[in-house]
Write a structure and sequence with these properties.
487 residues, 0% strand, 2 domains, single chain, mainly alpha
Length: 487
């Protein structure tokens, strides 16, 4: 069941109606039933994986709380679930790699190659479950005695496909809330859904046509088109992912359940470290709390800190996908951060030497420009099918000038017309203005809902028609159409 479908809209409306009509004590069970139905609609077999993860981590947490061998139980339970994730997400690629290394890319193989069923959202609910185990081990939470409540925490339908990744102590109390229906929350959630649909269907899907054409035939193009393709992908990925999170958070708000915000203007960041504090926030904080800090963080000297940064970003790369391109992407971000920290003093002295004042507009501008281009450069590896494709893309981008494509109209021959680019540009400008007017996305919604009723409803109607008239439609709308749903 795709998030962008009439079926999903009907499902949410029916579930909302039942949720607010049943006795308040039964709401959690209604949410659980709805979440399991939603997940089973993708493939009934997915429930087997979900139930295994839920049962093993539920029992593991209970044993951790009651046993003297806490670390051993934690290691076994985390290891079993990490192994499950590795088998379904990484093992087929690993087998192919082994054969390519030892036998070449011919027909002969030394290990069997195969494909496996990959359940939607498994990367998300497994690391959410691992976080639950770690918090239990550290004594931050007490393990839930009710299996169905814990299962609800893992399977909550707005977040199961691609997050945001929730912490048990923040989400679980809300899943069992007994609040009355709030029109204000329903309205705010609906507006957030509309913003998400605009980001996804009007901006990201239009950009995707251009981006796919450029990356799919990168050997045919030169520097300008390839750079625009990389920038286009950076924008597409953000609009697609944040649009889905807006939609999911909006639906959840209708149930009076607040999911964490996953983004805080990441492309406004002035450093790579700041970028990772603003991008995919729930995952970034998970990596910090459950990988970086347990490794020692910055408590064991400079070299150990740099090693911990490298390991943390390598884990991030592996989590995002199977392939050396993802490992390289993670390592590259680690190098960005390590070099940034190691040269901090030198850069500060250089700025003083050339007369750049700390906190000045010029300083902030070049920091933003460098950060955005470094992030965009790294996205090339993230988007490419293989590591060699990424290097081929970059080689052409650096060696084949074609600035004339900006003037001869050839860039409008890649599936996106001039008018479509204007639509994209106007929407991006509008969103940037809204972001400058508000420091948080909730403030954007607040700005809209605080307007006079006539202007307020005019905005609602405009958003609806924006999606209906300017959205990209077509067959193939399934969960994979959301880019981060594949990670």
């Amino acid at each position: 069941m795709s998030y962008i479908s009439l079926t999903f809209a009907a499902f949410v409306l029916v579930l909302l109606l039942v949720y607010y009509l049943v006795p308040k004590k039964a709401r959690g069970l209604i949410l659980l039933a709805g979440s399991l139905v939603f997940y089973a609609c993708f493939d009934l077999r997915y429930l087997v994986f979900l139930l295994f993860v839920a049962a093993s981590t539920y029992l593991g947490a209970r044993l951790i709380a009651e046993s003297k061998h806490k670390k051993t139980i934690l290691g076994i339970t985390v290891g079993a679930n990490a192994l499950l994730w590795f088998v379904v997400k990484e093992l087929p690629w690993t087998m192919t790699l082994i054969n390519d290394i030892f036998t070449g890319k011919g027909t002969e193989t030394i290990v069997p190659e195969f494909t496996l069923l990959v359940p939607v959202g498994i990367s998300y609910y497994i690391i959410q479950a691992i976080g639950y185990l770690a918090d239990t081990y550290k004594g931050k939470i007490s393990p839930d005695k009710s299996f169905w409540k814990y299962l609800l925490f893992l399977s909550y339908f707005p977040a199961i496909v691609q997050g945001p990744i929730s912490r048990y102590d923040k989400l679980m109390p809300q899943l069992l809330n007994e609040e009355k229906f709030s029109f204000d929350k329903f309205r705010n959630g609906f507006v957030l859904v509309l913003f998400g649909l605009v980001k996804k269907m009007v901006i990201a899907d239009r950009l995707g046509i251009f981006v796919n054409a450029v990356f799919g035939n990168y050997s045919d193009y030169g520097a300008t088109l390839l750079y625009l393709g990389a920038v286009g992908y950076a924008l597409q990925l953000f609009m697609d992912f944040s649009g889905c999170v807006d939609l999911c958070r909006g639906v959840s708000t209708m149930f009076s359940i607040e999911l964490v915000n996953n983004f805080n203007r990441p492309y406004h960041a002035l450093s790579i470290k700041e970028f990772w504090g603003k991008w995919h926030i729930s995952f970034s904080s998970w990596l910090k709390d459950y990988i970086y800090i347990p490794l020692g963080g910055n408590r064991k000297g400079t070299l150990r800190k740099y090693l911990n940064i490298l390991i943390t970003f390598m884990v991030s790369g592996i989590w995002h996908g199977a392939g050396f391109q993802f490992l390289f992407w993670g390592a590259l971000h680690a190098v960005y951060q390590i070099v940034g920290q190691a040269t901090l003093s030198l850069r500060s002295k250089f700025k003083k030497l050339i007369g750049v004042k700390e906190g000045s507009f010029s300083e902030k501008f070049y920091q933003w420009l460098i950060t955005f281009n470094l992030v965009t450069f790294a996205w090339i590896f993230f988007r490419s099918s293989t590591l060699s494709d990424a290097f081929g893309y970059i080689f052409n981008m650096l060696s084949r000038p074609d600035f004339w494509v900006l003037f001869d109209g050839s860039m409008f021959e890649l599936g996106v017309s001039k008018n479509a680019f204007i639509v994209i540009l106007l929407h991006v400008i509008a969103l940037v203005i809204l972001e400058f007017l508000s420091k948080k996305q909730e403030d954007v919604i607040g700005m809209v809902t605080r307007q006079h009723i006539i202007l307020r409803w005019a905005i609602y109607i405009a958003l609806v028609f924006d999606v209906l008239l300017l959205g990209v439609y077509g067959s193939g709308y399934d969960v994979s159409s959301f880019m981060y749903g594949g990670f």
